[in-house]
What we know:
By secondary structure, the protein is α+β, with helices and mostly antiparallel strands. Helices cover about 45% and strands about 20% of the residues.
Amino acid sequence: MxxxxxxxxxxxxxxxxxxxxxxxxxxxxxxxxxxxxGFHLLSQGSCFVRFQGKCIPLEKxxxxxxxxxxxxxxxxxxxxxxxxxxxxxxxxxxNSKSLGAPITTFVSVRYEIPETTQHPFFLELPDHxxxxxxxxxxxxxxxxxxxxxxxxxxxxxxxxxxLQRLTDILLYYVIRHWLETHPSFSPGxxxxxxxxxxxxxxxxxxxxxxxxxxxxNLARTIGISRASLANxxxxxxxxTPMDYLSRLRIEKxxxxxxxxxxxxxxxxxxxxxxSAFAFSKAxxxxxxxxxxxxxxxxxxxxx
Length: 303
């Protein structure tokens, strides 16, 4: 699994289809999304998104990804009133199919973000990512994914499960497209994804976090000197490979504690620590409290 896939999988964002509708008259929806992210995808027609004093037009094939939750509205025209998403059925009942062809067809997806530590990569994402249909080449995987999503929406009886899986795929391609089209020349995760050696080192430790990695054998694995690996890692990410490995093991261990009925001894062994004591000591050094006393609210965005 590549590094971006690993990060997105570990984030454990839960997909929820908020809306998948064709609208036949003027309409407006308000999305209270202070603590969640999501997508809006247009497969037919156009609309506008209002947020933070802005009003941006959306056309067929456009993708709007809300990377960091904020309240926003989708409306058929810039000045149209928006109702809360909870009243969506009321709006749909007023947009009867007997009125002819729909003016807009769209799907809205929410990602519920767990109240736990998120990978620091997410801190570098902008509040939102807008990809215009004209930016997407016909041979690009984004284009293929959008076609599949549009087909599911147009079926009316299309599966929410299929849409959830397709939007998870879309999430990957949207972020990858953003990384490719918004290179950074400053230290950070965007730069790490562009450095082949750092990326290789990160993928190696993600693939085998419990392995007895040292700076020497990690450098040997990716074909670089110890000093060069340490310096490049520190210059781009601000910490050493072994620091990152420790945090990676702790976060994987924390997920095991939350999701499975496992003992600390078992967790420690799975993620590469010699004992429950060693794991607990490392956990407390990073988070400030022991693993069994963890309060999800307390550790939100610790990274």
